[in-house]
Amino acid sequence: MSFSQSQAEMPSTKRVAVIGGDGIGPEVTTQAVRAADAALVNCEQRIEWEWFPWGTDYLFEHGSMAPADFLDQLGDFDAILLGAVGHPRVQDHITLNGLLLPIRRRFDQCVCLRPAYLYEGVESPLRNKTPGSIDMLVFRENTEGEYANVGGRVYQHSDHDIAIQTSVFTRRGCERIIRAAFEQALNRPRKRVASITKSNAQGYGMVLWDEVFAGIAQDYPQIETESLLVDRAVMEFVRRPESFDVVVASNLFGDILTDLSAILVGSMGLAASANLASNRCHPSLFEPVHGSAPDITGKGIANPLAAILSAAMMLDHLELISAAASIRGAVSSLLRSPDRPRTPDLGGTGTTDEVGSAVCALIK
Ligand code: NAD
Ligand code: IPM
Ligand code: MN
């Protein structure tokens, strides 16, 4: 056996940083790690998980959401798995700008991928939708746009209080997210891309976006395109969700549209996401679309499937393809069967732990 063959057959270990975060974050992340471990049982590969206690409890104790060098600490991992950030006792811009948003920026996680698929056994709030009829993949720009964090406040606490919040759209930023969307559409049967802006009112940044979209579309004559204003788009998401395949939108619009796409396919508790770094030297981050859900925190009823499906996206990214497929298969079987546990958001009486256990049992 040659040296290179024996190297190739060596079991490899991937290192993943886990940040449970706030609220239901740790509850659902625990189940995601369990499911990934169950899926890896029959593989040569292993994941070494390192949990970090960062988040708002850490802030209460230490005065910051994470240690000053947290981004350096994360830089060496193969991926990051995150639960959620946000606490009712602290303003969200403080908690989110102390943890999640700097991670997206530091590691240039410019593509946020958010699938929405109507599983068999799950009811859409829209009438008469059949399994698989809603199947969209939103590409959300993730490092600039309305989230560029450019602006400031002056004359605070006076009648002349001024707040300036600037959106930043760069040709490079628009090009890379829009091209990524087109490339993905080539691999999907329906081959459609919808771009969503508000360029009738946002006459600089979003006009640049529209121009870039029209230019890149020329390179993909086999892809059908449409360009919608966001107000029209939310209406069409409800009226004709089946017509959407790949959707590409700015940071803020992608954020809003993916709470809508999540509920169209049944629940926030099913919506997974990947924040993909532009360069594989940096870790990508995987997390549910939902937040810390303070209204159900600690009740043991949070749906862990969004976190579990986010872990499946992470396994795909780490090229642990069969493990990812086994998680997806287990989630589909679970949802298909009315006798298996499901959490209240899906009309059941099951707990987070029962659903996590059922997924693990189905993986085996
Ligand atoms: P949310 O997503 O936390 O909750 C919205 C609704 O969906 C709530 O009724 C909640 O109970 C329900 N829900 C969410 N996830 C669920 C799950 N897994 N199972 C069952 N039900 C679920 O949105 P929000 O209430 O607007 O935000 C709460 C906090 O989370 C805020 O502090 C917000 O800033 C933060 N947030 C963080 C992230 C993140 O870390 N990525 C994402 C969104 C919101
Ligand atoms: C999401 C969240 C975050 C976002 C918030 C918490 C900053 O809503 O990931 O969807 O808007 O990016
Ligand atoms: Mn959101």
Summarize the structure.
This protein has 364 residues and is an alpha/beta fold.
Could you describe the 3D structure shown?
This protein is of the alpha/beta class and 364 residues long. It folds into 2 domains: 1-110 and 270-364, Isopropylmalate Dehydrogenase (3-Layer(aba) Sandwich), CATH 3.40.718.10; 135-264, Isopropylmalate Dehydrogenase (3-Layer(aba) Sandwich). Helix content is 39%, strand content 22%. The chain is built from 13 helices and 12 strands. The chain has helices spanning 3-9, 25-40, 56-62, 70-75, 92-97, 100-106, 171-186, 205-217, 230-239, 251-264, 305-317, 321-336, 352-363; strands spanning 13-21, 46-52, 79-84, 111-117, 135-141, 145-154, 162-168, 192-197, 224-229, 246-249, 272-276, 284-288. The strands form 2 sheets. The chain has a 10-stranded mixed beta sheet, with helices on both faces. A two-stranded antiparallel ribbon has the order 6-7. Helix 2 (25-40) packs parallel to helix 13 (352-363). The two termini are 33 Å apart. Manganese (II) ion (MN) binds at residues 255, 259.
